[in-house]
Amino acid sequence: MSSIRDVARLAGVSVATVSRALSMPEKVSNESLEKVHAAIAQVGYKPNMLARNFRSARSYAVVVLVPDIANPFYSLFIRALEDRAQQKGYAVLLGDTRGTPERELEYIRRVETRLADGIIQLRPSSEKSQNNIPSDIPCVNACGCEYTTGPAIRIDNRAAAKTMVDYLISLGHRRIGVISGLKDNPHTVDRLEGYKDAIRNAGIEYDRDLIAEGDFTMWSGLNAAFQFCNMKNRPTAVFSMNDEMAIGAMQTLKAQGIRIPDDMSVTGFDDIAYAKYCDPSLTTISQPAEEMGKMAMDMLLRIIEGEPLSQTECVLPTEFIIRKSTSPVKVVAQ
Amino acid sequence: MSSIRDVARLAGVSVATVSRALSMPEKVSNESLEKVHAAIAQVGYKPNMLARNFRSARSYAVVVLVPDIANPFYSLFIRALEDRAQQKGYAVLLGDTRGTPERELEYIRRVETRLADGIIQLRPSSEKSQNNIPSDIPCVNACGCEYTTGPAIRIDNRAAAKTMVDYLISLGHRRIGVISGLKDNPHTVDRLEGYKDAIRNAGIEYDRDLIAEGDFTMWSGLNAAFQFCNMKNRPTAVFSMNDEMAIGAMQTLKAQGIRIPDDMSVTGFDDIAYAKYCDPSLTTISQPAEEMGKMAMDMLLRIIEGEPLSQTECVLPTEFIIRKSTSPVKVVAQ
DNA sequence: CTGCGTAATGTAATCGGTTACAGGTAAATT
DNA sequence: AATTTACCTGTAACCGATTACATTACGCAG
Fold first, then answer.
1. pLDDT of A331
2. Which candidate, B290, B282, B278, B265, places its Cα nearest to that of B320?
């Protein structure tokens, strides 16, 4: 309730002196400093940041656009983002878009009306799947893909997927099913390329029937797996494009009496906390979410504060983690 | 970049008319309205919400204090909170405290300096485990306990726990282990009371050795379960105070060759998405997180806007969900 | 003693909206 | 015709900080 003027009056100095005492104390005499601090303590003064932000035309907040916060993969990101933002004195405005462009626009408007200084985009985007973010607003894609435009932090999805499928091939698998995300999702596109790279290398023909489309939820993985159960010529391994779908798929497969990994190997992607604790534990690709979040936030704040960027895209390494859900193919079949 | 004065000049009206055209168009003639809208379109005017908020001494943002956003139980809450806030024109400032009071204070300061209008507290609190939030700042506990002070939305943890343990007893279990949260956590206290209520009713003596302390993480559940494996007189059922610890515990038990539910029944609490998909699927208590989040946000906004509260505490019903992790005790023992 | 540099402080403008208050005009009432 | 009323509009104060610029005091060199 008390303003800087109340403090000034009580301390017997001017408002300018109070302001300086707080933001550049070295410019103020010790005598004044003491009087000011005493007055502040006496009236319980708390600076009104709304006024400060208004004056400086900055909100010191950034929007984090996330398709679904309940997705465990995104929560790791968000935690890292929030951590870094907090360190640098910025607040994180949570923008759960639920995958709809309308909500995304709502948050973009927040930046245009000065309620936020920039955007971290967690939805992957490429030229095709446009993000409707005007080019003049600071934005970093923390979860980019091969063809993401603008500043981005990403992993090499294609290479990581290839690594995984190469591994399955090295275990003797030749019929390898895929549980993909939605067809036009850039992650799906990149990872599918990696899959194709691997099988082409191994001289395996691409079979469209081996691709089951999901949407990165556990439920969709559970459903997608049925496609493989009922096949006459069942795949011996399944490459799922994320862990949640893999876990859902394992549920279906086990329920159908298919043993994992003995009858079928299953792999995931992301290495969410759960991948280690499901049964069997999941062979997967670990993304450095912590690191990616920090770098994305650093990059965004640098753009906001007008500092030059050393690089506009950053590709971080992934880790390939072998657990219990994969095994060599059984040679004695049927 | 363009301000309301630019628009006024171009439209040939006063700034007051422009302001009114935007916030109370019914008070402005059609002629003026048209001129104003034309001018707005021409210069691409976007109101500066920082100025508006500054003037109205409101930030239209609320802090959501969450111990750990990566905890799947909290993410459900947050999604509901964000949803409702967005509907009402408020932003959600994410406050991941990582369980530390320092970070909590940091966010409380945000409210004191006007960067947020109120707080949703997800950490349960009671008189004993104080939340250091000054009483003059609007705050609602969205995840309260029996002795939570101040406005709160909660479930009846004690009764829910009793229901669960009653069920285990009805299946013939007499030695029922507990995996609890940290001892002084209010949820732990409430749920332990429920456990005690149930066994007392059934004439079972309370055995301190049957209580293994965890901290609500999967990892802690995994460790706590060892306590039961090595017991001479093993419990036939384990009541875990949340799903994550239950899932961790099942991992340990299965690794030790203990079959679930044949050799030991395991139950959880919360009904996170994963509870349905783990192996075996988990018998648990479902909290209406969606509903609780919405109600908590509504209550907070009502307090912020100075409307009267019909009630200061709201206890919502839980749902008891029986799945595959529980079964009648085997009478032919050893 | 004058002039100049430095340090500390104060005065007042400023940011971009909102809104109290004061006109001004035209229709309705007396 | 005079007065009231309703409606629309404009002027300017205001919110609480920051900060450019002016002012004052003081020490020191010339």
1. 63
2. B282
